[in-house]
Write a structure and sequence with these properties.
Blueprint lengths: L1 E3 L5 E3 L4 E10 L6 E11 L4 E5 L6 H8 L7 E6 L2 E2 L5 H10 L1 E4 L11 H11 L4 H14 L15 H13 L5 E5 L7 H16 L3 E5 L3 H4 L4 E6 L2 E6 L5 H5 L5
Parallel strand pairs: 5-10, 5-11, 8-9, 9-10
Antiparallel strand pairs: 1-2, 3-4, 3-6, 6-7, 11-12
Helix pairs in contact: 3-4, 3-5, 4-5
Length: about 250
């Protein structure tokens, strides 16, 4: 079932993210690497899912496919009921702007834009007036406790500050799906916990969040923990903590 919000955007009332039999291969012939092997995953409205696993298990590949930044070799990716593989380029770009907020490991801020301009850009590209987009960007900076960075460029910020600006960019607007790839990597423990609190708050407001992390203390914020190994889901925990999952066979 779908509904239309006050901005005219169609929203699904079902799962926000569905991965069905998702496969991703790189290379060909004997050099083929299977990054994902038939992964199934459903993330509901208001659900916080952490994805854990060793290096090379397919965590980041899963996020790039879920966010429409890469194309699956097989299977389907549905965001708010739309199958991404069947969308034309312009329609896919609109889904990424309006439905998906993505926090990259390497920030991906535009060097020539200030913090506020980086945050406002996706909103402006979707037709939001520049003044309103700037107000929303400033509010996002307030939320991450860095309003003073509004007019600074990325090279005038520390790595941790750039990461928090990237997080603000992912959260601005009405994104129903937030994908975060190791968003606390450049942050100290206290700031990392504050970032997780922001993601948790966004879930409580109705978004779905998928977090890739190797830290069990951050995965403990999630409603469910999914463990990947060699491109397959090998275990899950619905207890909201990662410890039971890591103590079992999934981490070995």
């Amino acid at each position: 079932m779908t509904t239309t919000d006050t901005t005219g955007t169609t929203r699904t009332t079902g799962p926000v993210l569905q991965l069905r039999g998702l496969t991703r291969e790189f290379g060909s012939g004997i050099a083929t690497v299977q990054a994902l092997r038939g992964v199934d995953l459903t993330v509901a409205t208001g659900e916080f899912v952490a994805v854990m696993g060793p290096s090379g298990s397919g965590k980041s590949t899963l996020l790039t496919l879920a966010g429409g930044l890469d194309t699956a070799t097989g299977g389907e990716v549905l965001v708010e009921g739309q199958e991404l593989g069947g969308l034309r380029r312009a329609a896919l770009a609109k889904v990424r702007r309006t439905s998906v907020g993505y926090v990259f490991q390497d920030y991906n801020l535009i060097p020539a834009l200030t913090a506020a301009e980086n945050i406002a850009l996706p909103r402006e590209l979707d037709g939001v007036p520049a003044r309103r987009a700037r107000r929303e960007a400033q509010a996002a900076l307030e939320e991450i406790r860095l309003p003073e960075l509004a007019d600074r460029f990325p090279d005038e910020m520390s790595g941790g500050q750039q990461q928090r600006v990237a997080i603000a960019r992912a959260l601005v607007g009405d994104r129903r799906l937030v994908l975060a790839d190791e968003p606390t990597g450049a942050l100290d423990s206290e700031t990392g916990e504050a970032v997780l609190a922001l993601l948790r708050k966004r879930c409580d407001e109705g978004a779905a969040v998928v977090l890739v992390t190797h830290e069990s203390r951050y995965a403990a914020w999630a409603d469910r923990v999914v463990f990947l190994r060699d491109g397959t889901v090998v275990d899950q925990s619905v207890s909201g903590t990662a410890e039971s999952l890591l103590a079992g066979g999934g981490a070995r």
